[in-house]
Amino acid sequence: MQQYQFETVQQVREMLKFKDMKGCSLCEGGLHYYLNMMNPHYENNRHSLFTTENEQAVLLHDGTYAVVPQIHGGLTNVQELRNIANVAERYNISNIRLTSDQRIQLIGVKKEYLSLISEEIDRGLQQLYERTVKNVSVYIGKGTCICQYEPALALSNELDKQLEYVKTPCDIKISIASCFHITEDVTTSDIGLRRIDRGWEIYAGGSSTEARSGELFYVAETNEEAIEISCSLIQYYRETGNYLEAVGSWIERVGIVHVREVLFEADNREYLMKQLSSERSRAITYLL
Q1: ∠263-268-270 over CA atoms, to 5°?
Q2: Using CB atoms within 10 A of its CB, is residue 210 exposed (0-12), middle (13-18) or buried (19+)?
Q3: Which member of 47, 210, 217, 275 lies 3.0 to 4.6 Å from 204 by CB, making a disulfide possible if both were Cys?
């Protein structure tokens, strides 16, 4: 695909002589992802595959939709909650639930109201593309733990903003623990960050479904450094990972030493951060 600089899925199918020129749901997603990564202008040519409606809403069995207001890091305030409640009341949305990843979901939205709701929700609607960063979840101490939680909330809020609308080869779960008392939820996430006395431990390659702990990848001294390392890691994964290859499988294939060698170079991180920022800006422009 890179060698011939393909610009459409149809060109790929014809060159590779697909038996079924219509393709299937699996290869369709993969081909679109690779073309999007190789061609910075490809997003504008995807109207036949996706619409804003489908990227920001889930179709339900009764013909209505479910949407999720954008709440970065799961952190909100009274004004935003009041705004969501007013929108739900205005459009007769009676089913509202709290999701497992610390978000609010509005269920039973009529199709003709989707664009109006997207405009009226203060932060807009969360993109629900199938392969992306699935929010940044925060875990604070339980029981008698009195460790500070504010740094974790601030970090999750900023990470969520940096990574929203960015597509990835496979779903990514990011967890942040406010202190060293919390272990399991962080080490079994694709990327986990845990607050310690000298900064943030960053784990990579965990999996809750496979009961696999990630490896300690880096120790960042500040929130800014933690964000840079985490975002650079995700961008490098986006550029070198195979479609549907989880972060843990990718690390096993390329080697965690190799990933460290790439990301420990400041110039490499600067390049990866610029690429990620450009991708995010392009995605936001496409959605708007």
Answers
A1: 110
A2: exposed
A3: 217
Name the token pair of 211: 């009961």
Instruction: Report d(CA 52, CA 129) in Å as an integer.
Output: 10
Check if the beta carbon of residue 77 is closer than 8 Å to that of residue 41: no
CB contact at 8 A, 191 and 208:
no
Tokens in use for 181? 């008392």
Residue among 250, 200, 267 at smallest CA distance from 230:
200
> What backbone torsions phi and psi does residue 96 show, to the nearest 5 degrees?
-130, 130
Measured CA to CA in angstroms, residue 207 lies from 66, 188, 198 at distances of 27, 5, 26
CA–CA distance, 61 with 226 (Å, rounded to integer): 41
Q: Is the pTM of this model over 0.85?
A: no
In a 3-state reduction of DSSP, which class is residue 58? strand
223-240 helix and 150-163 helix, angle to the nearest 10 degrees: 30
Q: pLDDT (tens digit, 0 to 9) for every residue of the chain, 288 residues total?
A: 878 888 788 888 888 888 877 767 667 778 878 887 777 666 544 433 333 444 578 878 888 888 989 888 788 899 999 999 999 999 999 899 988 778 899 999 998 998 899 889 988 887 766 677 877 888 886 665 667 888 999 999 999 889 988 889 998 999 999 888 777 678 899 999 999 999 999 999 998 777 788 999 999 999 999 999 999 999 999 999 999 999 999 999 999 999 999 999 999 999 999 999 988 887 776 655
| Nearest of 192, 170, 180, 197 to residue 253 by alpha carbon | 170
266-287 and 256-263 helices, crossing angle to 10°: 90
| CA–CA dist 88, 86 (Å, integer) | 5
103 Cα distance to chain centroid? 14
